[in-house]
Structures are given as C-alpha cells and as structure tokens.
Design brief:
The protein is α/β, with parallel strands linked by helices. It has a single domain, classed as Response regulator (Rossmann fold, 3-Layer(aba) Sandwich). The chain is built from six helices and five strands; from the N terminus they run βαβαβαβαβαα. Helix 2 runs parallel beside helix 3 and helix 3 packs parallel to helix 4. The longest helix has 13 residues. 26% of the residues are buried. The C terminus is likely disordered.
Length: 131
C-alpha cells in the first residue's frame, strides 16, 4: 500500500483529502504543521509527501527542503494558492516533483500519486536486481 504524508493546516481540506485518498487505496498520515510532518518522517516511511505552502509554522518550501536535506527519498508535491514564477523556480531547485495550484485538480493529484510505487513494489524491485 502506498503511504502518503499529507501536511495541510486547513482542517476541512485535510480531512477531505484524507478521506479521498483512503477511498482510493492510499494509507494517509495527516498533520497540520510542517514541524509535525517532519517529526512524523523521523518515525514513518512514506512514498510521497503532499505539503501545503502556507502553514502556521514553516512554509511548504522549507518543509520540502528539510525532507530533501535529510536524505529521505519520498516524492514531494507542493500545494499552493500563491503560485508565482519565483515560487515555481524555487520548488524546482529544491526537487519538488510537482506544484498543484488551489483549488486542487483532484484527478491530476490522483494520477500523480498512483504513479508512485508502494514500499512493497520498491522492495520487490530491489530484490529482483540483487538476486
């Protein structure tokens, strides 16, 4: 099963996305602050981080940079209502795979998430290469 860390400070958006993603077969860990999300990454293995840009403690780019700086390998997606060329350039420099503008195109989000291999698929691929 694919595990997604969802970092979103708007409670209604967080709950709605959690329910949608769980319905679509993802295991979702949701939190409302960047620092809580980074703490969860210390203890949880996820394949994707979906992070809002505007959070109460850190901005989404700071969270995405911290994920990359830790050497962790989840794919990182950013969601923002404040899309501009400077933000998009910085996101690309950090290694954010995709930036979604709000309101989120849920079909596009699901397509992107479904292209992510699960932990089981990754383990099977590694074993096939090493055996």
């Amino acid at each position: 099963m694919k595990r997604v860390l969802l970092i979103e400070d708007d409670e209604n958006t967080l709950l709605g996305l959690e329910k949608l993603l769980e319905y679509e077969g993802f295991e979702v860990i949701g939190t409302s602050t960047g620092n809580q999300g980074l703490e969860l990454l210390d203890h949880e293995e996820v394949q994707v981080v979906v992070c809002d840009y505007c959070l109460p403690d850190l901005n989404g780019l700071e969270v995405c940079q911290a994920v990359k700086d830790r050497g962790q390998s989840p794919r990182v997606l950013l969601v923002t209502a404040y899309s501009n060329p400077e933000l998009l350039q910085k996101a690309e420099e950090i290694g954010v795979e995709r930036v979604f503008s709000k309101p989120i195109d849920l079909d596009e989000l699901l397509k992107t998430l479904k292209r992510t291999p699960s932990a089981t698929e990754i383990t099977a691929e590694v074993e096939s290469v090493t055996n």
